[in-house]
Amino acid sequence: xxxxxxxxxxxxxxxxxxxxxxxxxxxxxxxxxxxxxxxxxxxxxxxxxxxxxxxxxxxxxxxxxxxxxxxxxxxxxxxxxxxxxxxxxxxxxxxxxxxxxxxxxxxxxxxxxxxxxxxxxxxxxxxxxxxxxxxxxxxxxxxxxxxxxxxxxxxxxxxxxxxxxxxxxxxxxxxxxxxxxxxxxxxxxxxxxxxxxxxxxxxxxxxxxxxxxxxxxxxxxxxxxxxxxxxxxxxxxxxxxxxxxxxxxxxxxxxxxxxxxxxxxxxxxxxxxxxxxxxxxxxxxxxxxxxxxxxxxxxxxxxxxxxxxxxxxxxxxxxxxxxxxxxxxxxxxxxxxxxxxxxxxxxxxxxxxxxxxxxxxxxxxxxxxxxxxxxxxxx
Length: 379
What we know:
This protein has helices at 13-34, 41-54, 65-75, 93-100, 119-125, 145-155, 212-222, 243-253, 256-274, 305-314, 344-352, 364-378, and strands spanning 58-62, 83-87, 104-108, 130-134, 158-162, 170-172, 178-180, 187-191, 205-209, 226-228, 231-232, 280-281, 296-300, 353-356. By secondary structure, the protein is of the alpha/beta class.
């Protein structure tokens, strides 16, 4: 087995930075020189660039992806006791915000192939108290938004897209029309956490909508509920994107499609290496969405996952589990409304998934080293 001299990382932010260093460094220095740390010109410029990229009327930058979800739910005037449906197989932030606002999280299962929210399960979970659906575009591809929007229209529900892992993905409707992830529902919410496909060098997030009135409300909620300075019309929060992070995001946004292409090249290599292997199930690409591969997640079959991760680590290969415990089994979200066994797909995925290194700087030597070792260890 060949050895590898370079360190393998789940995400290589340093290698990515080297290619945009001049622009990023100059932009950050400009912010320091002008001391426009908050609401500097780069914030508005990035907002405008992202609106154009997404073909959406309004982008409201904020402090992080969790805030984006909270601001969205506050702007929609959701009230304690209202039910919000989301997937049990996701990161905690989605349900966390629902609970923090005194709303009731209603968890449903996901599809076993795409890992996206199960639409039949959503329909069964709808009650007179249901006010919103939060589909999570998990690991880099869109949930089936056309069907979700039809269901939402039928039951008069809001749809808040959680796009933290799928910025740049394209959804294709049955008539061939395309739309970017996050621009289809009532509101889209994203995160610019450093490891995301479009990541800053700290914390950041954004909210998108095509609704002019809702955009006004979202901006107010994100800025202490102010319509004008010192006039507070609604209950709000303090959540903004700082100028240094906007500089970084503005530089990276120009390369976002290149980043997705690089991730897809790495995913194609993995797919080919693991094709038809009885111990691995490679990720399924949805027919109606492009995949931007925030994560490359295998399902293991008959493999001791803990032991495999240890063996990979000994060979310098990191691997992560997204996610080891379903939301309905987390102490914070346990409820007599659901129990272990109610979400068989989620529970199986939590027991079998393994995510491999995936980023924009993967080369063939690294990919070969990872795949050769992984296959050798399970054979």
